[in-house]
Design a protein that fits this description.
It is built from 15 helices and 2 strands. With 415 residues, it is mostly helical.
Length: 415
């Protein structure tokens, strides 16, 4: 067990305390202050070593830069190769040193990680130049290599102190507390949004209930009952009109063939005949002079003379229908038709005066809109509920509580 564990765990049984979540971070800082101070002191010893090597390596780099060849008879090509590798080696080493100055205590952990990654890269990029320079400036490059090795050892010792002190666990605890606070903040925001949507949902439900009650009240009103009677009466009248029209349609349908033949034989009443072939009821309404009587009289004569080509039963049936469609029948038919149409107009006028349908239509539109809003509101509430269920805050607190035992306390976190 590290000295930090011994520092915070002198009692065998953990002391129980309660700490508000928003105070936990500052409380942890206060508990770690002693650790921080002692750890800083330990690290200073190694940072001093590191900085001393940095100063020394710069001196050795300058010495390498100015060093002259002992053998003056080296071929120009070989000398050129040496110069190229010396420049490369000095440039990479100096760049590495410049980029890895020891930072403040709070950033030391990141410094160590970056240093460990980059020193491997330095060894790879300077490896060839190092071995070439061994042939020319062995002492100079070995002194620089020794500087780098001692810098690496100083950083390794910093890392050991950090690990031994459990300081990384303190940082992890602080990160966990930050994440917990962020999750709680987000959960509270979702909770507030849920409450807002729930309130809106309740208002929508009230609107739906009120509108449905208004609709039910209208459907029990005398005005609604009167409208239903008028609609029933209108349907009955429309049925009578349809039946009445169908009767005339059937008669003229039965004599359609003689009418068409007559139309092609004479042009005296071709427009009249065409109208009755198309719609006998409309044609009769428009036929104020009753020209159809003359047409039917002529058709009967042609039937009897055999000019229209009908025989036996078909001929007799057709003559029977033509006889039925006399002036008296058609006038009486028209009177009944006009009376029914007038009755229908009177009923429609009464219906138009009754405003119950407009009231119901307006209320049903409001109800439709409210139900659509309700559907969207329910979906939004369900979505927010699913988001809330993703926050396992109790488990996070439980894990954090266990981790906090490193401080020597059994901490109960209060929201």
């Amino acid at each position: 067990m590290s000295w930090f564990r011994r520092l915070f765990s002198r009692k065998k049984r953990l002391e129980k305390i309660e700490i508000p979540l928003d105070k936990l971070d500052s409380w942890l800082d206060s508990r770690a202050e002693l650790l921080k101070g002692k750890l800083k002191q330990q690290l200073i010893n190694y940072t001093d070593v590191y900085n001393a090597e940095v100063a020394d390596i710069e001196k050795n780099l300058k010495a390498l830069e100015t060093a002259e060849l002992k053998n003056k008879n080296v071929l120009p090509k070989v000398k050129s190769i040496m110069e190229g590798n010396r420049n490369t080696y000095v440039r990479f080493v100096r760049s590495f040193v410049d980029r890895h100055a020891v930072p403040d205590f709070e950033k030391i952990d990141e410094f160590i990680k970056v240093f460990e990654e980059d020193i491997e890269g330095l060894n790879k990029t300077t490896g060839k130049a190092f071995y070439v320079l061994q042939e020319f400036f062995k002492d100079e490059v070995n002194r620089i290599a020794a500087n780098i090795k001692r810098m690496d050892a100083a950083v390794a010792n910093m890392k050991k102190e950090l690990v031994k002190s459990d300081y990384d666990k303190i940082l992890e605890l602080k990160d966990n507390i930050i994440r917990l606070n962020e999750k709680l903040k987000l959960k509270n925001e979702i909770k507030e949004e849920s409450e807002k949507v729930k309130k809106e949902n309740d208002e929508i439900n009230k609107k739906i209930d009120t509108t449905e009650r208004f609709i039910d009240d209208l459907k029990r009103s005398a005005e609604y009952e009167e409208m239903q009677k008028l609609k029933s009466k209108l349907e009955d009248t429309d049925r009578k009109i349809t039946d009445h029209k169908n009767m005339l349609f059937q008669y003229f349908s039965a004599i359609e063939r003689p009418l068409k033949k007559y139309k092609h034989m004479t042009y005296d009443y071709d427009k009249i005949v065409e109208g009755y072939l198309d719609n006998p009821v409309n044609a009769l309404v428009k036929d104020q002079r009753m020209d159809i009587i003359s047409v039917l009289y002529s058709i009967k004569k042609l039937l009897q003379s055999g000019e229209l080509g009908l025989k036996d039963a078909s001929l007799n049936k057709t003559i029977e229908i033509v006889d039925k469609l006399d002036k008296k029948y058609l006038q009486e038919y028209l009177l009944v038709y006009n009376r029914l149409k007038q009755e229908r107009e009177i009923i429609l006028a009464e219906i138009n005066k009754n405003t119950i349908d407009e009231k119901l239509a307006e209320l049903n539109k409001k109800l439709e809109v409210a139900k659509y809003q309700k559907e969207r509101s329910d979906a939004q509430l369900n979505n927010l509920k699913q988001k809330m269920n993703r926050f396992n805050i109790d488990q996070i607190k439980k894990d954090l509580k266990k981790s906090l035992e490193i401080t020597g306390f059994d901490v109960r976190i209060i929201d």
